[in-house]
Design brief:
By secondary structure, the protein is mostly beta strands. About 10% of the residues lie in helices and about 40% in strands. The relative contact order is 0.13. Belongs to the TonB-dependent receptor family.
């Protein structure tokens, strides 16, 4: 028996009928499911973010370059919903090191992070999200682990192997650390001291001597009390009498335990019904493990063999029988054994079986029912991203329904097949991944495969729609020397694996690009289908959706920037009061508005760069200044643990040795010829720290503390209470006198310019500042210091730096009616530098050992689907790799990888 199919045009009719009340939504599960999905799409359009990086890993001192693609909806169209993107660089202790806000235009943005030389090596991560995406939560953000090694001032590299034992019933971690130099030579007979740290708690400490192979083995227990906090080994190896090197090594697992979970296809085992069962064996480090074993029943009869197929996953068949239980007897890689019980089978129910790998053109669907459910009506709905692409209903006559569904009706990506019973309850679910003919076809036109060093490359990119018509597409291209930057293609995060796979299913995905690297590989398709059996759909739960109880949005789309708040006098709102927003940095900027009946005001549709300082002044309707201003608090996004913790690699530095060797040569060349800006001296483990500024938070154009006189907070404190700071400063600032709150130079008598936190203010503004808020005062009188201020500095300048801290979105209240505010503005991305060797001004004799040869984040194809890519090769031989990714105007996604040789 086959299903009665419901055409898509009829689904659209049904939906509109429900909206206008011609039929009740509860009359039919398919009608209700379609209606609820559309409501969910309308209320909660799903944005996704993907970042294309120039290369897969970095070294301190590098620049991280990236292009952001923000899509919305089931067709992955570039989003017009959000106008701002938050991007954060997070260290291995879950602290934000850098945070930028990027302007988004038509779903696109590009940015960068500069990695200072003083950064520690480690497993970092980059997180990106829009304000709208915060409604879905951090699980839906773009979040990628980035390995950052250290080339300069680092001659100690490690390789750590963990084994696990037990002592008094408690797990014991045994770590064998091999210490070696960049060439692989061991550090033998060296003193090592170490601490085991979890969070901020010290678990153990000890000392030892490396053996002739540079190895040190240490053991520690007591990790059960760490509350799952990331543990790390902090070791210090004494190289010689003058040099000791610290290495921080993450402990990726606290035991050798392997957990095996079972996933009956479509959700449940049902007695008497054949069922495909997927399994997943995962170690304590979160990675898949190989296992072998057998499935036995409670009579010790062997039912099936169990063998991993890919990354700890596999499948087997079972027909559960009433009154029987089933156990898997498993043998692990180290020879140890374990037993795991299968989920208990239901007495009656349905099974939904799908074969998505055998037939290239069709999906085979088989629904089976228990004897007690024969003849009941079932409804099948297949949706992707909220759009229904197939729906059918039928009665389960003779206990079985079998049908085929053509694959070309589905888009590329994750499709959810759900079986509803007659009461509209979702009883079975199966995820599949379909590959349709809907990709953006990208090609690189190159006249040859081999080029010369420093040769000018003039390449052309061609983009075509799925039906082979020229496509207008936004693209980004990265060119690297993969001789210096070896790439594990399976382990990459790509625009395909991120948007089409990872963003739609629950849980960590190991080696995500493996499933896309070879499009027509049958084994990859089979492995991808096993992945679908072991993961769950993450976008919504049918129970909440059908009951209309899915969460409503809290956060609104951030299209531009705004400054808003409330003006009040005591507990009473100030109605009709005038609020002025102004800054003089980078030219005059003045806006004003009136407060509403609740005392609220808002300046919206603003666009300004990061670190810009504003002054906000409020007056009541009569022009009086004795009012208070409260700005709306911009809540920070909670920082959660690394969702991709299994990507943390304790041995990444030894794995990327070719890149670190190249980076060291590059940096030494830059220092030799005086290019680049590096703070590290070329001496083993000797670091020149940046000198702390003589005053904090200075806005002095001459540099912090470069002034004729500096008064610090502690100096002001010794003056005693100052009801008016000008009274305390009178007679204490050389060459300055105060009259009626204004500062005048004693030489010429002209009025001096006052600057508070970088903002030019009126002369009497000093009287409104509480002395306890002042961090320092810098006085500029001589022409050597005032010349940078032009005519404004002709009579001298007084710079007031307040104790506002380093955080963005901070504001300082000086007095009633006036505050300064430093909101989080837009970061202006830098431009990637690429030498132009046809320019005679470029020194072509310098060694050119770049690893990122070229980065082009803003390529756009013309009406013929073409775009040009031009750059010069580096001055080194090797295998070069070009990665092009992008999206066209209709949401078609594409990726192309091209290799060529440089001799």
């Amino acid at each position: 028996m086959t299903f009665k199919k419901i055409p898509l045009y009829l689904l659209a009719f049904i939906t509109s009928a429900i909206v206008f009340g011609f039929v009740k939504a509860d009359d039919d599960p398919i009608k209700k499911a379609t209606t609820q999905l559309q409501k969910w799409l309308d209320t909660y359009p799903q944005e996704k973010v993907y970042l294309h990086f120039d290369k897969p890993y970095y070294a301190v001192g590098d620049d991280i370059w990236f292009k952001a693609y923000i899509t919305v909806g089931p067709k992955h169209e570039l989003s017009a919903l959000s106008g701002a993107l938050n991007v954060e660089l997070i260290d291995d202790r879950d602290s934000i090191l850098q945070a930028i806000k990027l302007p988004v235009v038509s779903g696109l943005a590009n940015g960068d992070f500069a990695l200072p030389d003083t950064l520690n090596e480690g497993n970092y991560r980059v997180r990106a999200y829009t304000n709208w995406m915060r409604n879905a939560g951090p699980d839906y953000f773009f979040d990628k682990t980035i390995h950052i090694g250290k080339a300069l001032n680092n001659n100690v590299f490690t390789h750590t192997a963990f084994t696990y034992t037990t002592q008094n019933g408690q797990p014991v971690v045994n770590a064998t650390i091999t210490y070696m130099d960049l060439a692989g030579a061991p550090f033998a007979n060296k003193e090592v001291s170490y601490q085991i740290v979890a969070g901020s708690k010290n678990i153990a400490r000890g000392k030892g001597i490396t053996n002739s192979k540079g190895e040190l083995t240490l053991s520690f227990a007591g990790m059960a009390q760490t509350q799952n906090k990331q543990a790390r080994i902090v070791s210090k190896i004494k190289i010689d009498e003058k040099n000791t090197v610290t290495k921080v090594l993450p402990v990726t697992a606290l035991s050798g335990k392997v957990d095996v979970q079972f996933f009956p296809e479509s959700g449940n085992l049902v007695n008497g019904l054949p069922t495909k069962v997927a399994f997943k064996a995962v170690g304590a480090d979160g990675l898949g493990k190989n296992i072998n074993g057998v499935l036995i029943d409670n009579n010790n009869q062997e039912i099936s063999t169990i063998t991993t197929q890919h990354l700890g996953m596999g499948i087997f068949m079972v027909v559960p029988e009433a009154g029987k239980t089933y156990t898997a007897q498993i043998t692990f890689e180290d020879g140890s054994k374990g037993t795991f019980a299968l989920p208990k089978a239901l007495e009656q129910g349905y099974t939904l079986s799908v074969n998505n790998t055998y037939d290239p053109d069709n999906i085979s669907v088989r629904i089976a029912a228990s004897p007690g459910l024969v003849g009941t009506e079932v409804n099948l709905v297949a949706q992707s991203g909220g759009n229904v692409y197939y729906a059918a209903k039928s009665k389960v006559e003779n206990g079985i329904i079998a049908t085929k569904v053509t694959k070309n009706r589905f888009p590329t990506g994750v499709t959810q097949l759900t079986l509803f019973n007659a009461a509209g309850e979702a009883v079975n679910e199966r995820l599949i991944f379909t590959t349709g003919a809907d990709d953006l076809k990208l090609d690189l036109i190159s006249p040859q495969q081999t080029y010369a060093q420093r040769e000018k490359m003039n390449l052309q990119i061609a983009a075509n729609t799925p039906d082979n018509k020229p496509a207008v597409a936004s693209l980004s291209a990265a060119v690297i020397d993969e001789t210096k930057v070896p790439v594990d293609e399976s382990d990459e995060t790509t625009i395909l694996s991120s948007i089409l796979l990872s963003s739609d299913i629950k849980g960590y995905i190991e080696k995500p690009n493996y499933y896309f690297a070879h499009k027509d590989d049958k084994q990859e398709k089979a492995d991808l289908d096993v992945l679908m059996l072991t993961q769950g759909y993450r976008r919504f739960e049918w129970k909440q959706l059908m009951s209309d109880s899915f969460a409503r949005p809290i956060y609104t789309p951030e299209t531009t920037l705004k400054v808003s708040g409330r003006v009040h006098n005591g507990n009473k709102p100030v109605v009709g009061g005038k609020v002025t927003l102004f800054t003089t940095a980078g030219g005059a900027f003045v806006l004003d508005t009136l407060t509403d009946a609740n005392g609220r005001f808002e300046f919206k549709n603003l666009i300004f760069k990061d670190s810009l300082k504003f002054v906000i002044q409020a007056r009541d309707a009569k022009g009086k200044k004795f009012v208070d201003i409260d700005l709306d608090n911009v809540t920070r996004q909670q920082l959660t643990a690394n969702v991709n913790a299994p990507d943390i690699d304790v041995n990444f530095d030894s794995k990327i040795v070719p890149y670190l060797q190249s980076s060291r040569s590059l940096y030494q060349t830059q220092v030799k010829y005086g290019v680049g800006s590096h703070n590290i001296l070329l001496k083993e483990v000797t670091i020149r720290e940046k000198k702390k500024p003589p005053v904090d938070h200075s806005s002095n154009l001459n540099g912090a503390g470069n002034a004729d006189q500096v008064i610090k907070a502690e100096d002001i404190a010794l003056m005693g209470g100052c009801p008016d700071i000008t009274q305390c400063l009178q007679g204490r600032l050389l060459g300055v006198t105060f009259r009626q709150g204004n500062a005048y130079t004693t030489r010429g008598g002209g009025q001096m310019q006052i600057i508070v936190d970088g903002i030019y203010v009126e002369g009497d503004f000093l009287t409104q500042i509480n002395y306890t808020d002042i961090s320092s005062i810098e006085v500029l009188r001589s022409g050597a210091y005032t010349s940078l201020y032009g005519s404004r500095g002709g009579n001298g300048v007084i710079i007031v730096n307040t104790k506002r801290g380093n955080e963005g979105n901070s504001y300082q209240r000086f007095s009633p009616g006036v505050i300064t505010y430093s909101p989080k503005g837009f970061y202006l991305a830098r431009t990637f530098y690429s030498p132009q060797y046809d320019d005679p001004k470029v020194n072509a004799t310098l060694a050119d050992m770049r690893s990122t040869i070229y980065w082009a984040p803003n390529l756009v194809t013309d009406k013929d689907g073409k775009a040009s890519l031009g750059f010069f090769n580096a001055g080194s031989k090797g295998s070069y790799r070009i990665v092009i990714e992008g999206i066209d105007s209709d949401g078609h996604i594409g990726r192309h990888v091209y290799h060529y040789k440089v001799e």
